[in-house]
Design goal:
21% strand, 7-stranded mixed beta sheet, 6 helices
C-alpha cells in the first residue's frame, strides 16, 4: 500500500471517528424518518464507510437531472435534509461555508438532497431566502431513504473519486471546521480515491 493510500485511509478514519465521537457525545440531533421496515420492527444497519455509494438520478431545482455515476472521478459531499428539519437548518450555513471554500475546485461537488414531499414548492423558496448556492436535489418520493438506508435527517456521506463512501455522519454537524476542510483537501489531493 502506497504512503498516499495510507494517509487517505487514515484521514477517512479520523473523519469517521470524529463523527462517531460527536454522535456519542452529543446524541443524534436529527429528525427520524420511519421506513416501512422500521415501522414493522425490522432492524436496518446504516450504510457504512467503505461501501460503494448507490447511484441515483435526481432532479435539481432548475429541472435538470444529476446522477451520482456522472460524478465519478470527483469527491462528492452528499447531504440528505429537509426544510422542516431544525438540525438540518442549523448545519446548512456551515455547509455553505464549506462549499465556498471548495467551489473553485472542479473535483469537488456538494449535493444536498431534499426529502420534502412537497418538492420544489417547499424547497425553492427556502433555498432562495437563505442564499444557498450549492446544488440542491429533489427527492420528494424519498428514494434515497432505501438505497442509502437513511434513518433520519440530516445524514451526510463523503464519497471518493471511485464512488466509495469514505465517511458517513448522522445528525447535524459544523462542516466549516478546519479539520473537515483539511480532510477534504487531502482527499481531493489524492488522485487515487
Amino acid at each position: 500500500m502506497e504512503i498516499k493510500d495510507r494517509i487517505l485511509y487514515l484521514v477517512a478514519g479520523i473523519v469517521v471517528l470524529t463523527g462517531l465521537a460527536l454522535i456519542v457525545l452529543s446524541g443524534h440531533r436529527g429528525a427520524r424518518i420511519e421506513s416501512p421496515s422500521q415501522i414493522s420492527g425490522e432492524s436496518e444497519a446504516p450504510v457504512a464507510a467503505g461501501s460503494q455509494a448507490a447511484n441515483f438520478n435526481l432532479e435539481k431545482l432548475d429541472g435538470t437531472t444529476v446522477s451520482l455515476e456522472s460524478l465519478r472521478g470527483k469527491v462528492v459531499f452528499l447531504n440528505v435534509w429537509a426544510t422542516w428539519c431544525e438540525p438540518c437548518r442549523e448545519e446548512m450555513p456551515s455547509m455553505q461555508t464549506l462549499y465556498d471554500d471548495f467551489k473553485n475546485n472542479k473535483d469537488f461537488v456538494m449535493l444536498a438532497v431534499s426529502q420534502d414531499v412537497k418538492g420544489r414548492a417547499a424547497v425553492a423558496p427556502y433555498v432562495a431566502k437563505n442564499g444557498y448556492r450549492f446544488t440542491i436535489l429533489l427527492d420528494p418520493e424519498n428514494k434515497m431513504m432505501e438505497s442509502y438506508e437513511i434513518s433520519g435527517v440530516p445524514e451526510t456521506f463523503i464519497i471518493d473519486r471511485k464512488g466509495q463512501i469514505v465517511a458517513h455522519h448522522m445528525g447535524a454537524f459544523d462542516w466549516s471546521r478546519p479539520d473537515v476542510r483539511d480532510a477534504l483537501q487531502q482527499l481531493l489531493d489524492s488522485k487515487q480515491g
